[in-house]
TrEMBL record, chain A:
It comes from the Bacteria. Gene3D superfamilies: P-loop containing nucleotide triphosphate hydrolases. Residues 11-238 form the ABC transporter domain. This is ATP-binding cassette domain-containing protein. It comes from Sphingomonas edaphi. InterPro entries: AAA+_ATPase, ABC_transporter-like_ATP-bd, ABC_transporter_ATP-binding, P-loop_NTPase. PROSITE patterns: ABC_TRANSPORTER_2. GO terms for molecular function: ATP binding; ATP hydrolysis activity. The lineage of its organism: Bacteria, Pseudomonadati, Pseudomonadota, Alphaproteobacteria, Sphingomonadales. Keywords: ATP-binding, Nucleotide-binding, Transport. Pfam families: ABC_tran.
From TrEMBL, chain B:
Keywords: Membrane, Transmembrane, Transmembrane helix. Its main location: membrane. It holds the Pfam family ABC2_membrane_3. InterPro entries: ABC2_TM. The keyword Hydrolase does not apply. Residues 148-374 form the ABC-2 type transporter transmembrane domain. The keyword Membrane applies. The chain crosses the membrane at residues 26-49, 188-206, 226-257, 269-289, 309-328, 335-354, 360-381. One of its GO terms (molecular function) is ABC-type transporter activity. It is a multi-pass membrane protein. One of its GO terms (cellular component) is membrane. It is found in: Membrane. This is ABC transporter permease.
Length: 318, 406
């Protein structure tokens, strides 16, 4: 297995390309997922997240590029050690919930009797014993999704891939799912999930890959994504004008009496000195670290600009 | 993925499909399915018999003396055993009247006593008038009655000698006829079952595509395993059906037919071997056609599309069935050998051969040949299935598409 620093690599993609009927859906995505990490694949709808995951899992073959899953370049060879929740949930409507979980385990090599035992255990651990005999068609969408999620982990995989796992869940179930992901990661399981809701990734992920228009615009640690943006300064002064204004960058904007601007390259000291020297009368001054949301918009926007053949500066000047 | 793993995964899918089908309430209807055509046969047969029974035979008025009429009646009585399908015309004597033409007209138009025609002129100048065709059944029967009556009246009567009858169980003609019948019945059963079950397989695939389970399966096991699992689950289910139907049929024959199963004329290879061949050839035929249907089903995403696509395939199967039935009764003809060699018609042709020819070695060759084609078609259909369902696999272009691209 490959290693990334001290950590082994659970999944890796290199320059994955996928064409459907002559149209490019994924265009050179590369991705590295360390073992035991929670990695988020972020991107707007239609960006190519699902296609990337399907290629990595071996459901479809890439047009070009390579991928390895748990050290194997044929992902289905390690299917027993992988769990997958597809974006389009699929269960047999007449199958009882516990059987559905056991069946999903059996597909991945778990003996059916053991699968049934674990299914009852998983349901009972969550207080859902009464679901066991109920056919899937009698469960609500959220309940069915929970059943499928339990089917994804029933065989105790080393790697879990969840495609848009939060969609269709209410706030309570989203919280439960976040906890389940944390629990799995705490148990040493590698988790990869895709989402277009950044808040989940921000709360859960150690690493993210941002995919826009079929390309990986960013791939790395969450902190690294945030550090791509300069901190934002929020400044409120008693004096409306003065020599201190020259220390503010030209891009600074005044919104309802508050100045907002990116922290200049020189850091906060020159700005503070100018404010104090010219007695600006600082009322409030805060320097905020940008969130993943800001980073995502900035990165996905850059990628989109590149697609259009413009640099961000050009795009901004038009 | 290694072969044992593919087989294991196929077994998991087959077990699920098999139990989901066999343990469902609708499977009972599937098992009861053959009762419907049998029931319909009984109902319509009964209605037909009732119509025959209640319909009075046509009557011919005979204007004659009592002595002549007695001879005609006697003649009719002698021919009566020949009229098993439809009774012979009934004769009704009428005394002659002075105005024969008026009497004839009155008889032909009488609403109280409807008659088909009037026979007059006695035995030596018979004249028939009636609404019949000139060389039809009624005229032919009247001619026979008159000829026989005249023969009986003449002094040259030859005493009729009863034929000594010795019964044998079979003769070459009766065996050939029975085997021909068995061959056609075997082919028909094979054809109907194959088409029916391949259609069911297709519906199941469409259902699976619509409820998105296919994605869960494809992420866990090779597409070949999904394909094989589905195909063999339906095969197992149909073999359950065939076993139930065959057992029920055998029990019915044992109970209701005199002499039980022994009373049926055996096919050339004998009943046990013939039933075994039916199972084998059904499996081959089902795998060949089922795989083709799955390949087609993979192209479609709705039931309507499936119906549109499967229609030409079903029609092709009807043609193949027709092709295979050309050789029934002539197992060494070019048509029979051609149908046995062509893979898709081979199971139908060979099941007919099992009914008509005793040799077993052609079946060994045919089965090996069919297994090769099953493997080839499974591989091809599986590749189509993979490319269509999962939009994966190497893209292939037809020659004209290549030219367009260039």
């Amino acid at each position: 297995m490959f290693a990334m620093g001290e950590r082994a690599i659970a999944a890796e993609a290199r320059d994955l390309v996928k064409d459907f009927d002559g149209k490019r859906a994924v265009d050179g995505v590369s991705l590295t997922v360390p073992e035991g990490s929670i990695t988020g694949i972020l991107g707007p709808n239609g960006a190519g997240k699902t296609t990337t995951l399907r290629m990595m899992l071996g459901i479809i073959d890439p047009t070009s590029g390579t991928r390895t899953l748990l050290g194997h370049d044929r992902p289905l060879e390690v299917a027993r050690e992988v769990g997958y929740l597809p974006e389009e949930r699929g269960l047999y409507p007449t199958m009882p919930a516990s059987e559905a979980i056991a069946f999903m385990g059996a597909l991945r090599g778990l003996p059916i009797a053991e699968g049934r035992r674990r299914a009852l255990q998983l349901l009972s651990d969550r207080g859902h014993e009464d679901w066991a005999k109920r056919p899937i068609r009698t469960l609500s969408k959220g309940m069915a999704q929970t059943v499928q999620l339990l089917g994804t982990i029933v065989h105790r995989p080393r790697l879990i891939v969840l495609d848009e796992p939060f969609s269709g869940l209410d706030a309570l179930n989203q919280e439960k799912l976040e906890q389940l992901i944390r629990d799995q990661a705490a148990a040493g399981v590698t988790v990869i999930f895709s989402t277009h809701v950044i808040a989940h990734a921000e709360r859960l992920c150690e690493r993210v890959a941002i995919i826009a228009e079929g390309r990986a615009a960013f791939e790395g640690a969450v902190d690294e994504a945030r550090s791509r943006l300069r901190p934002i300064v929020h400044l409120r002064t008693r004096m409306a004008d003065g020599p201190w204004r020259s220390a503010l960058p030209t891009s600074a904007k005044n919104v309802a009496g508050e100045w907002r601007f990116e922290l200049p390259e020189g850091g906060p000291e020159p700005l503070l000195k100018a404010l104090l020297d010219s007695a600006a009368g600082i009322e409030t001054l805060s320097i905020e670290r940008p969130g993943l949301h800001d980073a995502f918009i900035a990165i996905a926007g850059e990628a989109a600009a590149r697609e259009m053949g413009h640099s961000p500066a050009e795009a901004g000047s038009e | 993925m290694k072969l044992p793993e593919t087989i294991r995964a196929a077994f998991v899918i087959a077990r699920r499909d098999f139990s989901a089908t066999v343990l469902s309430k609708t499977f009972l209807f599937f098992l009861l399915g053959p009762l419907f055509p049998i029931g319909l046969g009984f109902i319509f047969g009964g209605i037909g018999a009732q119509v025959e029974e209640t319909a009075a035979p046509a009557t011919v008025a005979v204007v004659s003396s009592p002595a002549d009429f007695a001879l005609l009646q006697k003649a009719r009585h002698r021919f009566e055993p020949l009229g098993t399908d439809r009774p012979l015309v009934r004769l009704q004597r009428v005394d002659p009247e002075p105005d024969a033409a008026a009497q004839r007209q009155r008889l032909l138009t009488s609403a109280d006593n409807p008659i088909l025609g009037v026979l007059e002129g006695g035995l030596f100048a018979p004249k028939f008038t009636g609404a019949v065709t000139a060389d039809g059944r009624t005229v032919q029967q009247i001619n026979l009655f008159v000829e026989e009556a005249v023969r009986m009246r003449s002094s040259l009567q030859v005493p009729s000698l009863p034929v000594e009858v010795t019964l044998t169980r079979t003769s070459s003609g009766s065996v050939a006829f029975a085997r021909n019948l068995t061959a056609r019945a075997g082919q028909t059963i094979l054809f109907v079952l194959t088409i029916l079950l391949a259609g069911m397989l297709l519906s199941q695939l469409i259902e699976e595509k619509s409820n998105k389970v296919i994605e869960v399966l494809a992420a866990a096991v090779p597409v070949d395993a999904i394909f094989l699992g589905k195909l063999f689950a339906m095969l197992a289910m149909s073999l359950v059906g065939i076993t139930v139907w065959t057992s029920a049929g055998a029990a019915a024959i044992a109970i209701y037919a005199k002499g039980g199963l022994e009373s049926l004329p055996p096919p050339a290879v004998g009943w046990p071997a013939f039933l075994f061949f039916i199972l084998l050839y059904f499996s081959m035929s089902y795998l060949l056609i089922g795989a083709t249907f799955l390949g087609i089903g993979a192209q479609a995403s709705t039931v309507r599309e499936v119906q549109t696509l499967s229609m030409p395939v079903t029609m092709s199967q009807v043609l193949l069935f027709g092709f295979a039935s050309l050789g029934v009764g002539r197992p060494d003809s070019a048509a029979a050998i051609g149908a046995a060699v062509f893979p898709l018609s081979s199971p139908f042709a060979m099941v007919a051969r099992a009914a008509e020819e005793e040799a077993l070695w052609p079946h060994v060759i045919a089965l090996v040949w069919q297994v090769l084609w099953v493997a080839l078609i499974l591989k091809l259909a599986s590749a189509i299935f993979r490319r269509s369902v999962l939009k994966s696999g190497p893209s292939r272009r037809w020659p004209w598409q290549r030219r367009q691209t260039a």
